[in-house]
Amino acid sequence: MTQPTAADLALRLPSLRLLTDAGDLEHYGRDWTRRWTPAPLAIALPSSIEEVQGVVRWANEHGVAVVPSGGRTGLSGGAVAAHGELVLSLERMNRVLGFDAVDRTLTVQPGIALEAVHAAAREHDLVYPVDFAARGSCSIGGNIATNAGGIRVIRYGNTREWIAGLKVVAGNGELLDLNRGLIKNSSGYDLRQLMIGSEGTLGIVVEATLRLTDPPPSSQVMLLALPDMDALMRVFALFRAQLSLQAFEFFTDVALKHVLEHGAQRALDGDHPYYVVTEFEAPDERAQEAALAAFEQGVEQGLISDGVLAQSDAQAAALWRLREGITESLAPHKPYKNDISVRIGAVPAFLHEIQSLLAREYPHIEVVWFGHIGDGNLHINVLKPESLADADFIAQCEHVTKLLAATLQRQGGSISAEHGIGLVKRPYLESTRSAAEIALMRGVKGVFDPNGILNPGKVFP
Amino acid sequence: MTQPTAADLALRLPSLRLLTDAGDLEHYGRDWTRRWTPAPLAIALPSSIEEVQGVVRWANEHGVAVVPSGGRTGLSGGAVAAHGELVLSLERMNRVLGFDAVDRTLTVQPGIALEAVHAAAREHDLVYPVDFAARGSCSIGGNIATNAGGIRVIRYGNTREWIAGLKVVAGNGELLDLNRGLIKNSSGYDLRQLMIGSEGTLGIVVEATLRLTDPPPSSQVMLLALPDMDALMRVFALFRAQLSLQAFEFFTDVALKHVLEHGAQRALDGDHPYYVVTEFEAPDERAQEAALAAFEQGVEQGLISDGVLAQSDAQAAALWRLREGITESLAPHKPYKNDISVRIGAVPAFLHEIQSLLAREYPHIEVVWFGHIGDGNLHINVLKPESLADADFIAQCEHVTKLLAATLQRQGGSISAEHGIGLVKRPYLESTRSAAEIALMRGVKGVFDPNGILNPGKVFP
């Protein structure tokens, strides 16, 4: 049998938009990871569910691997096509299909950007509350495929909580219409939940019905400086007990240095090892007084060294930029990213353990810590020294990740909190999932994608 | 090969408690449905996860069907053992195993009653917010197996939302430790979610870590009388827009008649066709004023005929009894139960359609309507006339359910909102799930339970 080509696919689906230029192959063949050399067969850009089904059926017949592709802002290589796969980009399927005022749901195509979802919800005086820095580029389909988390999980949960219905093209080309916006539906296995977070290995999201909610009451943003790592979770406990927290994000002095170099404005004088940006509901004076009281208590207890409460929307945005600008500010340093989580209660012991591990293993390498510490989720970015070759740097980081994975396994944590497994984490999946679980996952994969054409090589070790 | 017996199992697991008396077989072989004659092989009452695994392994070796069993308050026959199955009752595994103040989780064994979970949460000044009338008898394992809903779904969602971790013995006897209390864990397929609502056909829940939350602000309870069915969803929209609703439950005059005959106290004068019990957060005077304003608006618009606001906890309990006492008051009439749902937005049209369907099909039979209308969930109980034989009555009800299922299919609804499919609804599963979905569900079943020993005959048509 000859190798199937893009021309074969074009013959089968004449109206399907297909790209095969070198520039397009490179553009669509990678995500925000930069470790793999893009080498897709072609890029298919369907404009309808039927075209998606047509592509998947053709791929089944010819044994062609398909990589579903959204905004390609992923950090685990889930959307990388480096081995002659057909990239199936959903970017042309990016419209709002409907809004239901009674159900308070928004039905969208998968290629719509998260930011556009936010805007569409706002038009109806409602909010879609999942949010993170890549909002302008990431697609809702990708958010669903990774069960994206972000900066409001502490208040609103992950993407999973907001998916009322999903249309999915399974690996066999069948269209599934899962849950259809019902609040209560105890009628057999919830395959919608199985799809969420499956990274395009079970099916391709072709439509999503998102639950919306009331806008939160007005909020305030505070930046806190902390004297040491132990203060972190104690301040979190103090604030959580007294305020309605919307976000509680931390970063280190090293992260601050990079984000300031990248153009952000300093908000506090002096050098402090740890910082927290927190946002809390403050609809009335009582809530504002509670916030100041919590702050003062923290200062009295020696847990908070300094702080600033935003006095305007502009200042709130400037404080948020200190946290949200980190990823972009680190990009030029080709960071190796760990995205790990433990139970909140396990965070203090875990932080100590990995702090000494990282100090020992990366003595001459800059390590940047930040993350959603109120959810037990920590981002550790290791910056490549200019003198080190890419491959040597990654080899060193993978060695350390192996040690980190062993620590996570002991602590019952997760090797991927919100980025997904993709290509980057698959060697470490066994630190988080048992052999029995992985065997069951393989079985499930075989049920939904019997020919193994959907995102092969991703997720599984 | 001879038939395996309880004696064989006793030989294999000498310390396992086993019951084989006729009274025990009858007691443990049924749930709240009364349609099947219990005929289990024996009742196993394990006291540890290891014993559960031992039973499942033995059952696999000998091809013995196992029916997992909790409080047996189910209404779909999911826990019925009528064909020589081994009942595996979790009732001895009913302890609280731990509480984590930082994670705000409670870890329990599966046989604990929902009410005992509520009490354990309260000891720590927190709440487990899933709640319904069977709270004293139902077990948390059964709640998880059916993704139980109840009276607070409108505010807190279904059981699914509150499960931070699950230990499950899969159909092959393997112990799975799923998600382990993590908030963020994007590491492969979320098998925990797949287990929730699988009615004991994929695995047996042997431990659960439940998320707890802050107690709600103080609330008020109101009983409303409505002039007609159209007012129902309009009052819901009016109240939802202005109040923080905790519950919005409706019932008809026929339901009221039964619950009053069963000893409840009348709270409003006059006869009205529809009633609503609603509970809303009322922490301050402003909220209380908003509630009265909403009520007055409803009266002015002709949507509300009368109402009463509970002035004490005792009166609130008395109003709640009008709704919560319905199921018990109907039990002597051997009701045939439908538990259906549609999207909230589809409720008004759906109510009209099924009202005329039921009036036509049950001209001489009493039909009682009530339910969680704010979630789109409607309970329709058909009461058996004394003159009609059980079998004839059920045959007639099944004929009507077929028509109802066709209506649900057109409206995109569900044949089981919160009771599960079990034995009762399996002939109608295809009204809610497509052939492609059911085929995938069968495939998933084969992965988790390759020998088909877990609750065979349940769920699948």
TrEMBL record, chains A, B:
Matches recorded under Gene3D superfamilies: 3.30.465.10, 3.30.70.2190, 3.30.70.2740, Uridine Diphospho-n-acetylenolpyruvylglucosamine Reductase, domain 2, Vanillyl-alcohol Oxidase, Chain A, domain 4
* Cofactor(s) the record lists: FAD
Q: Which domain of life is it from?
A: Bacteria
Respond yes or no to whether keyword Oxidoreductase is given for this record: yes
Q: Which keywords appear in this protein's UniProt record, sorted alphabetically? A: FAD, Flavoprotein, Oxidoreductase
| Domain named FAD-binding PCMH-type: residues | 36-215
Tell me the protein family, please.
Belongs to the FAD-binding oxidoreductase/transferase type 4 family.
PANTHER family reported in the protein's UniProt record: D-2-HYDROXYGLUTARATE DEHYDROGENASE, MITOCHONDRIAL
What is this protein called in UniProt?
A: FAD-binding oxidoreductase
Originating organism? Dyella mobilis
